[in-house]
Amino acid sequence: MGLAQLVFLTIWLLFIAVLAPFLWAAESDIKVKVLYLGQEYSGKKPLALVQQITTDGGLPGIRLAMDDNATTGQFLGHQYQLDELIFPHDADNQQLIDAVNQTDKPFVIVDLPAKQLLAIVDGLDPIPRRLFFNVRDKSIALREQHCRTNVLHILPDRAMLADALAQYLLVKRWNKWLLVVGKHANDRAYADAIENAAKKFNAKIVAKEEWRFEYGGRLVDSGHVTAKQEVSLMTQARGENYDVVVVADEDDNFGEYLPYQTYIPRPVVGTQGLIATAWHRANELWGATQIQRRFSKQANGRYMTERDYAAWVAGRALGEAVTRINSTDVDAVRTQLLSNEFQLAAFKGVALNFRNWNGQLRQPILLAAPRMLVSVSPQAGFLHQFSALDTLGLDRPQTRCGAFKN
Questions:
Q1: What is the SS3 assignment for 81?
Q2: Mapping DSSP to helix (H, G, I), strand (E, B) and coil, where does residue 291 land?
Q3: Pairing of β 30-39 and β 78-87
Q4: CATH of domain 28-156+280-363
Q5: Residue 240 to residues 177, 198, 204, 206, 258, Cα–Cα distance (Å)
Q6: Taking the domain 162-277, which CATH number applies?
Q7: What is the crossing angle of helices 288-298 and 59-76, to 10°?
Q8: Rounded to two decimals, what is the model's pTM?
Q9: Each residue's pLDDT tens digit, 18-71
Q10: Which one, of 310, 280, 265, 282, lies nearest residue 372 by Cα?
C-alpha cells in the first residue's frame, strides 16, 4: 500500500469514527418539545423618551436559541418544536395551569413572577413530568425556601447581583454607602440584598433613605425638575460622608434622577447608574458581538435585554443537555444539567453550569454603565475553594433549599 493510499485510508477511518455517532443519532429522530409561557403586562410610561419600549421581551431570545439548537440538531436527528403561550395580563393562575396541562411539552420556559410560577408548578398534573426554566424572577426566596426540584433559574438572583456590585465597590475602596430605596416591594427586596452584601464584604451603609416624593408628569418640568431638587435634599445623608450612592429602584421610578444631582459629588450605582446585570447591550467581549447582531436581526433591530438573554440561555442549556445524552427524558435531562460535567458556552468568558443545591445558573455578572461595560464580577482576589463564581450569592453552606439535597 502506497503512502497516498495509507493517508487516504487513515483520513477515511477518522471520518467514519467522528461521524458514526451522528449517523446513528440521526436515525433516532428525537423531538424536543418546548413551551414558552408568558403574560402580557401593561407597560408604564417611560422615564425618558430615549428609553426603548420592549413589548416582546424574552420571545426573540428563545426563538434564536431554537434556531441555534436546530442547526446542531439537523446532524443528530433532533427536532426542536416551540409553542408560545402569552396570556392577557388579567388571566388568572387556573387559566395558565389548564393551558399547560393541555400541552404535551415537557420543557417549559417560564416568563412569569415567582407567585405565578409556583402556582403553576404546584398546580399541574404530576404526569407527564416537566422541567421548568425561570427566565424572569430574581427573588432569592424562589431559589431558597420556596425552591422546587423541577425548576431551574437562569437569571441571577438579587443576592448575586448585590454581591457582584459590592465586590467592585470594595476593589475601588468605596466602602461607605448611602442607600436610597424606593417604596415598592421589589425595591425593598433589592435593598435587603445590598444590606446583606455590605455585611458579607464588610462595607458600611452610613445612611438609608426612602424615596417618598410623588410627582405628576414624568416628562414635564413640574415632574423632573422638582424631583431633582428632592434628590439634593435626600442625599445630604444626615451629615454623613459617603463614597457612593446605591439606589434600589427596580421599577425605574426615580433612580435616573440621582446621577449628577446628589448633594455631594458621588457615583451612583445599583439599579441605575452602574448596574449589575446578567446581560447588557454594551457587551462585546468573548464573541458577544456576533450574538448581539444575530439577535438584533431576529428582533427587528432592537438590542438584547436580560430576559432575552435568559430565554436564549435556557433554550441553549436544554439543547446542550439533549445533545449530550441523546434523550428527552425529563429526569435524565435534569440530571445532566445539574451534573458537574455540564458546561454551556454563553458569551461570558467561562463555561456556565448549574448549582446542584438550588438550581441556580452560575455565571459572571456584568457591571455596566448605560453605554459601556465597566467590569465583570467576581472580581480578582475574591477566592473560593471550588469556584470563584460561588462568591456571588448564597453558597452551598447557606442554602435553605431542601428540594435539591441528595
A1: strand
A2: helix
A3: parallel
A4: 3.40.50.2300
A5: 10, 17, 12, 7, 17
A6: 3.40.50.2300
A7: 110
A8: 0.90
A9: 444 544 444 568 999 999 999 987 666 666 767 777 778 899 999 999 999 999
A10: 282
